[in-house]
C-alpha cells in the first residue's frame, strides 16, 4: 500500500516536511497508507472544531439549539461598564451562526492558545463576555478559537452535557473511537476549539463519515443537511492559497472542490466528494500549504 504514496513521501522528504502519518481512502477502501514510525493518538489541535460542529448539528436536530440562539440567551454576565461603550456591540448579541462561521467581530480574537495557558480568570465564558466586539458580527471572518470555545460552552448550557460526553454515544462509539481524551477549561467545559487526541486512522474514519454525509454502516449519525450546510462556504476568507477558498461552519473550503478540517502543525482531514476520497494526515510541521500542495500534486492523481 505504501508504494502508492511514494511520490508524496519523496516530496515531503525532499522539502523536509515533518509529516508523520498519511491515510488515503477511496470509495470507502483504504488504498494507501504511510507512517514515519507508527500511527499513535496525537493532539489534533483545531480539527477538534469540526467535531464540535457535529455536536451542534445534532443539538439543532433535537431542538435544543438553533442557529439564532444568542450568548445572552444562556449567559447573564454583566459587561463591565468600563469596557463597553455606546459605539460597541455587546457580546450578548452574538448568535450561534456568528460563532460557527467565525464572524464574531473581534479584531483580536480572545482565548487563543497563549492566552488560555496564562489567563488568571478561570471562568473563560465570563472573560469572553467581558470583552466588547470591535464591529458588527456576521460581516467579516476572523479566525477565532475563542468563538469555538463559546460554541462548546453554549452547547453545554443548552443541553446539560459536555460536547465530549454528548458525542461519545452518538459519534465516537459508533465510529469505534473509544476512551477519547479531550481537554477541558478550568471549569470543565470541553475545549471544543482544540484538545482532542485521536489517531490518524481514527481521523480517517471521521472523514469517511463526512464523505458519506453522516451515514455510518446504515445508521444516520449526523443529519445530511447539517453536513451539507457546515461543509459549504458560509463566509469569504481573505488569504492566499487554500486558506483563501472560504470557510463553512468550523470547516475550511479548499482546492479541487474539496473541504477540510485542519489543525495547527499539519493535522489535516481532506474530503474530496468528486473523487469519493478522504485523505487524513498528521504532522508536526508548520508549512501546511506545502503539505497541501504535495497532496494536490502527488496524491490527487492516484484517485482518478
Automatic annotation (TrEMBL):
Domain Beta-lactamase-related: 13-285
Transmembrane segments: none
InterPro entries (alphabetical): Beta-lactam-related, Beta-lactam/transpept-like, Diverse_Enzym_Activities
Protein's UniProt name: CubicO group peptidase (Beta-lactamase class C family)
Biological source species: Paenibacillus tundrae
Amino acid at each position: 500500500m505504501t508504494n502508492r504514496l511514494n511520490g508524496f513521501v519523496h516530496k515531503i522528504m525532499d522539502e523536509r516536511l515533518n509529516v508523520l502519518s498519511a491515510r488515503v481512502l477511496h470509495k470507502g477502501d483504504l488504498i494507501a497508507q504511510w507512517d514515519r514510525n507508527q500511527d499513535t493518538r496525537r493532539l489534533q489541535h483545531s480539527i477538534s472544531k469540526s467535531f464540535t460542529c457535529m455536536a451542534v448539528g445534532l443539538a439543532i436536530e433535537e431542538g435544543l439549539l438553533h442557529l439564532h440562539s444568542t450568548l445572552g440567551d444562556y449567559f447573564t454576565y454583566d459587561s463591565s461598564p468600563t469596557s463597553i461603550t455606546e459605539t460597541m456591540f455587546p457580546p450578548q448579541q452574538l448568535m450561534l451562526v456568528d460563532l460557527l462561521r467565525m464572524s464574531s467581530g473581534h479584531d483580536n480574537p480572545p482565548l487563543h492558545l497563549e492566552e488560555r495557558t496564562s489567563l488568571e480568570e478561570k471562568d473563560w465564558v465570563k472573560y469572553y463576555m467581558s470583552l466588547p466586539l470591535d464591529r458588527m458580527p456576521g460581516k467579516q471572518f476572523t479566525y477565532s478559537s475563542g468563538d469555538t470555545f463559546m460554541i462548546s460552552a453554549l452547547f453545554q448550557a443548552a443541553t446539560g452535557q459536555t460536547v465530549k460526553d454528548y458525542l461519545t454515544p452518538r459519534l465516537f462509539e459508533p465510529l469505534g473511537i473509544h476512551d477519547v481524551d479531550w481537554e477541558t477549561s478550568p471549569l470543565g467545559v470541553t475545549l471544543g476549539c482544540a484538545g482532542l487526541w485521536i489517531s490518524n486512522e481514527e481521523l480517517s474514519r471521521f472523514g469517511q463519515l463526512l464523505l458519506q454525509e453522516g451515514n455510518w454502516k446504515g445508521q444516520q449519525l449526523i443529519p445530511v443537511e447539517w453536513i451539507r450546510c457546515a461543509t459549504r462556504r458560509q463566509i469569504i476568507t481573505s488569504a492566499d492559497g487554500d486558506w483563501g477558498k472560504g470557510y463553512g461552519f468550523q470547516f475550511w473550503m479548499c482546492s479541487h472542490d474539496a473541504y477540510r478540517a485542519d489543525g495547527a502543525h499539519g493535522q489535516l482531514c481532506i474530503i474530496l466528494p468528486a473523487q469519493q476520497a478522504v485523505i487524513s494526515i498528521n504532522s508536526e510541521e508548520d508549512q501546511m500549504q506545502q503539505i497541501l500542495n504535495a497532496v494536490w500534486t502527488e496524491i490527487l492523481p492516484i484517485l482518478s
